[in-house]
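Consider this:
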Amino acid sequence: MKKLLLMFFILYSTNLIAAKDSKDDLQKGIDLTGKGFVGGEIGFGGITTFGVGVVGGYEYYFPRDWQFYKFRHGIRAIGGLNYGIDTYSTWWRNYTWHALSFQVGADYILDFTPTSDFNWGVFAGLNFGYHHLFYDKNVYGYNFSAFLFGAHAGGSLTMYKHHKLDVQLGWGLGILTLRYTYLF
C-alpha cells in the first residue's frame, strides 16, 4: 500500500511540475507590461453623421497567473474629446449642427497572438460622456447638453507592439468608429 501511495504521489507531483512548465512555455515571450497610448479616431453615426476626435489612456494586462493558454487579457481605461457635425435640409431651410463631447470609458481586452508582430484581439466596454449639441443658427433657441451612456465592442490589430488599429461598433455616442493609437 505504501508503494502504491508513493507511486501515486510521484506521478501526481511530476504531472503538476510538467503542467506548470508547459504553461510557462506557452506564455513565454508574452509582454504583460502596461502601456499608455494616444491617438485619433473618426466616427460615423450616433448623434452626428461624422465626427473626429483625440483619445488617450492606459492598457493594463493582468498578471501571468491570470493569463490562459497563449492569450493575454486585461483592461483599458480610455478618454476622448470629439467633435461631430451633421446637416439636415427641408424645402425651406438647411440646418447644420455641431457637437462637442468628452467621454471616459473602460474596456476588457483580449489579445489572441500577443507574441506576434501582428497581434489580433477583441474588446468590449462601456463609456460615459458629456455631450453638447449646438446649431450654427440659433434655431428656436435650441441647444442641447446631456450626460450620455454608451456601449461598444470591436476588434483590434496591434503592429510591432506600438501601432494599434481598432474598429468599433457601438451604441450611444457612436455607431462605427475607426481608431489609431500609438502605444508607449
About this structure: The first helix runs from residue 2 to 26. The beta strands are 35-44, 50-61, 72-89, 94-111, 118-135, 144-159, 163-171, 176-183.
